[in-house]
Design a protein that fits this description.
about 500 residues, mainly beta, Glutaredoxin, Neuraminidase, seven-stranded mixed beta sheet, five-stranded antiparallel beta sheet, 34 strands, about 10% helix
Length: about 500
């Protein structure tokens, strides 16, 4: 069965192409089933589609089925070509991608939301679209039927000017002992080497681009890695284990708990032995959390960060726009806040709407769980007491963003991904604005930390998409300067900054 309307042309003035030697036109694609993936960097559901696209490319020859990403930015920062190049490297996206920075193709194809797949038949006509995250197995079966029914047998598609697969990667795997797109950094409450070094603090970092967790001494010196450095889901010891794009973590005296985002799981590392085991998640993407279940039986969705209060392990389930909690003693997991709808609505936890909750932080009394809703560019709080509610400190909706200081009601952020409690205030990694912000709940004010005024050890200092922030003392902060592949130490009292790791 052939399409009903001609597909709008892809080769338009002003569009920038990646992973291909020249722009592709519909005439280049004649005779193939073409899948256009409309996506944007910030959307975790879009990132979840990428493994499905890899399976499609591995299952069908390029002469039969051809995948093209159409990057259609939501946030102003995503219109930057460098930001897209970093995303392609970070998520190992190797198929051709066209940067639709002004949403020309988005509008031409009538796309309404991220992610959306659009199918173009071998005759150059649109067959239909599929919004949301697809079921991979069902999609593969459907593509097989479309290829069988739609592809003209007599047409021999022309070769395409695609670069070799390895050309899309940034060579980061060669830098195995360096950081690559680091995200969360959290302290260990006790030294793992207490007998030798009882007074020094230690840190764990999610080295997301290397699919590893790194243990660091307080001077930034790397001491150990967990994970083999390639994506996988393996419970073994030390470097024999495997993670997939871990984003968040939290530590107690015995374990490092890991938000293993790409595996939709929560893992734990026993610090003494290095043994890795799974606390929750099945390795596949799950649906909305609705009831209390044993944690091992629950399929999670893009777990992004963790926080710990006694035996209660809080987690952000970014893929379903929810918060959850695990009782580590009983092993039971229950939904904590969020209906599963993506929006910014306050109120009782079971009725509140969240929007891709990411980083978590507890106050000193551990009575309030603060979190950032990255898709709503919002800073929010959940009162953990009986009858507690979700409330928004700053942020106004899914399409309300910017860089505005002042009263909480009018302050604006842009896709923030990091947060920590700092002496009665919150320090926020305002990721897409590339700055650190201070939120003062008592005074009701938001301000910039002003880190660009810090003296840096090798010249001017500027963050590129900072995604993690950790308070290391009253005047000391550790920042994941993610796109610069480093951790930075800021001394607020001295106004100095240096590359820490």
């Amino acid at each position: 069965m052939f399409g009903l309307r001609p597909a709008p042309e892809l080769d338009r003035p002003g569009l920038e192409w990646f992973n291909v030697d020249r722009p592709l036109a519909l005439s280049d694609l004649r005779g193939r089933l073409v899948i256009l993936d409309f996506w944007t960097i910030c959307c975790v559901n879009c990132i979840n589609v990428q493994p499905t696209l890899r399976r499609i490319r591995a299952s069908f020859p390029a002469e039969a089925v051809f995948v093209i990403g159409v990057h259609s930015p939501k946030f102003p920062a995503e219109r930057d070509s460098a930001a897209l190049a970093h995303a392609l490297a970070r998520y190992d996206i190797r198929h051709p991608v066209v940067h639709d920075r002004d949403l020309a193709l988005w509008q031409a194809y009538g796309v309404l939301g991220w992610p959306t797949l659009v199918f173009i038949g071998p005759d150059g006509k649109v067959l239909g679209d599929l919004p949301g995250e697809p079921d991979c197995d069902k999609l593969l079966c459907g593509i097989g039927r479309m290829v069988r029914d739609c592809r003209p047998r007599a047409v021999v598609p022309a070769p395409l000017p695609c670069r070799p697969a390895d050309a899309a990667a940034d060579g980061g795997r060669a830098l195995r002992r360096r950081l690559r797109y680091p995200s969360a950094i959290k302290p260990l409450p006790l030294s793992p080497f207490a007998g030798r070094d009882p007074d020094r603090r230690w840190w764990a970092c999610a080295d997301s681009g290397h699919h590893q967790v790194v243990l660091l001494a307080d001077d930034g010196r790397e001491t150990r890695r967990f994970g083999r450095g390639e994506p996988g889901f393996i419970d073994l010891a030390g470097e024999d284990s495997a993670f997939n794009n871990p984003q968040g973590l939290v530590c107690d005296c015995r374990f490092i708990y890991v938000a293993d985002t790409g595996n939709h799981a929560i893992r734990k590392i026993e610090i003494a032995s290095g043994a890795v085991s799974t606390v929750a998640g099945t390795g596949t993407r799950g649906g909305i959390l609705t009831r209390t279940l044993p944690s091992h039986d629950v399929a999670l969705a893009s777990v992004w960060d963790l926080a710990l209060r006694g035996d209660r392990l809080f987690f952000s389930n970014a893929g379903t726009h929810q918060l959850g909690v695990i009782d580590l003693k009983s092993g039971l997991l229950e939904p904590l806040a969020g209906t599963g709808s993506e929006e910014l609505v306050d109120g009782p936890p079971e009725a509140a709407h969240l929007a891709q909750p990411s980083a978590l932080a507890l106050d000193d009394a551990a009575t309030t769980l603060y979190f950032v809703d990255s898709e709503a560019s919002a800073v929010r709080a959940l009162d953990l007491g009986r009858g507690g509610e979700v409330r928004t400190l700053a942020g106004a909706g899914l399409f309300e963003f910017g860089h505005v200081n002042g009263p909480l009601a009018t302050a604006r952020f842009q896709h923030c991904l990091g947060i920590d409690w700092w002496c009665g205030r919150l320090i926020v990694a305002d990721t897409y604005n590339g700055v650190l912000r201070v939120v003062d709940p008592l005074r009701g004010q938001v301000s910039d930390l002003g880190e660009r005024a810090f003296g840096f050890d090798d010249g001017a200092f500027a963050c590129s998409e900072p995604s993690g922030i950790a308070v290391a003392g009253p005047n000391r902060l550790l920042v994941s300067d993610t796109n610069n592949h480093r951790l930075v130490e800021l001394r607020a009292d001295r106004r100095t900054a240096r590359t820490w790791a």
